[in-house]
Specification:
It is a single chain. This protein is mostly helical. 79% of the residues lie in helices and 0% in strands. It has 9 helices and no strands. The longest helix has 43 residues, at 219-261. It is rod-shaped.
Length: 262
């Protein structure tokens, strides 16, 4: 430490300055307190440190997005096999058991068709970010292939045509396909909501730094910014859930309309 009188270096145990011979006994607690406060101030991250941390996290996020864009063909094939082909085979198996083996009420098959695709889509989109359009095409394939496959299985038993023969049968095919598609879409939306929630949790440090930086603005401007940010956050958190509820209702309606209505 330094002597408060002559600023020369003195040892921590000294009670008298060796240079100016002044008594240091009364000043030592104050000097120790000042040193402690200086250490605490040094430990507080500066604005530059926060900006560097934000830049680092943005770089990591960009790197993750780049990895997503460069996913290997094997990863795409694996996802298609697990999240499209497996539910398709399970739906065909359920149709074979309910309609052919046990010959029971078709409402059970409709309920299974509305429930089964949802968890596959949920875990697909919860694991990491996906582009929507390719999987929307996959949803259409899953829905149509399931219904045509069920019709083919039935034709093997009663020799009925695989494809619809009139407008009413086409309408039933499209409604049944829509119920399967809406179930998968609901899982996609719920999975994206869960993935976004996880991303928000990981990026809590970024948001905290941005809020701290925003607090440096004028009070009125800060209040306005915080109000807009709060509205955007509310929409982000609950908007996906509302849309998911809508697709769930559509899946139930299209899946049971033909049976309940008849």
């Amino acid at each position: 430490m330094n002597c408060p009188y002559c600023l020369s270096d003195v040892s921590e145990e000294a009670h008298v300055c060796k240079t100016c011979s002044r008594d240091l006994y009364l000043f030592k607690p104050m000097i120790a307190k000042i040193a402690s406060l200086e250490g605490q101030l040094a430990a507080i991250p500066s604005q530059e440190v926060n900006e560097l941390r934000i830049a680092e996290l943005e770089y990591l996020l960009e790197e993750q997005n780049q990895k997503l864009a460069n996913r290997s063909s094997f990863a795409w094939i694996k996802d298609i096999a697990i999240y499209l082909i497996v539910p398709l085979l399970l739906l065909l198996l359920a149709h074979w058991l309910i309609a052919i083996v046990y010959d029971t009420k078709m409402i059970y098959l409709r309920i299974i068709s509305m429930i089964l695709p949802l968890p596959f889509a949920y875990f697909l989109f919860k694991s990491h970010a996906h582009k929507l359009f390719p999987w929307f095409i996959g949803v259409v394939f899953l829905a149509i292939a399931s219904v045509i496959g069920m019709s083919w299985i039935t034709s093997l038993v009663d020799r009925s045509p695989v494809f619809p023969q009139n407008l009413f049968e086409w309408k039933e095919l499209l409604e049944y396909s829509a119920s399967i598609a809406f179930s998968f879409l609901t899982g996609m939306l719920l999975g994206r909501v869960a993935f976004a929630a996880e991303q928000r949790r990981r990026q809590a440090g970024i948001m905290s730094a941005l809020n701290k930086a925003a607090s440096n603005h004028a009070k009125s401007a800060s209040a306005s910014i915080q109000g807009v940010f709060g509205l955007m956050k509310t929409v982000e958190e609950h908007g996906g859930t509302v849309v998911a509820l809508g697709t769930t209702a559509a899946s139930i309606y299209t899946g049971l309309k033909g049976i309940v209505g008849s």
